[in-house]
Amino acid sequence: MEEERKHFVYEILRGIFGCLSKGISEAVANRIYDKMIDFAKYAFNKSHAVSYALLSYQTAYLKRYYARGFYAATMSSYMDNSVKTAEYIEVAREEGIRFFLRISTKRRWDFPSRTERFAMDFPL
């Protein structure tokens, strides 16, 4: 960060002038930079906390009101990880989602969610 401070206070970087070239004293420029660092420490954590809270809310909503679609999308995204897929199948079963096996002519695994029961398509 001290390297960035030098750019902020003194140097011209990619056509952006430092504070000294704009008539701002070195002491004031350093105080401004210190305040920016303090705010960045706070704002970074705060923005991530808000983002994760929103993502958690949306995930919980989808899982509650669109369970088959939620599990279909989640398991389809973990198709290369059989352990994770098995874990999601177990959790879905515990939540009352029934599975049945179906042979498919598709070339890949798929978890469609449009049917009354949840199908697992197995490629031929």
Describe this structure in words.
- The termini are far apart.
- The chain is built from four helices and two strands, in the order ααααββ.
- It has 124 residues and is mainly alpha-helical.
- A two-stranded parallel ribbon has the order 1-2.
Spatial gap, N to C terminus: 56 Å
What is the residue-mean pLDDT, rounded to a whole number? 79
The percentage helix is: 55-70%
| Rounded radius of gyration (Å) | 26 Å
Largest sheet: 2 strands, parallel
Total of helices: 4
From the helix content, strand content and strand pairing, which structural class follows?
A: mainly alpha
Contiguous runs where pLDDT drops below 50 for at least 5 residues:
none
- Spatial ordering of strands, largest sheet: 1-2
| Number of strand segments | 2
Dominant shape = rod-shaped
- How much of the residues is beta strand, in percent? 5-15%
N to C succession of SSEs: HHHHEE
Chain-wise SSE layout:
Blueprint lengths: L1 H8 L16 H40 L1 H11 L4 H13 L4 E6 L13 E6 L1
Helix pairs in contact: 2-3, 3-4
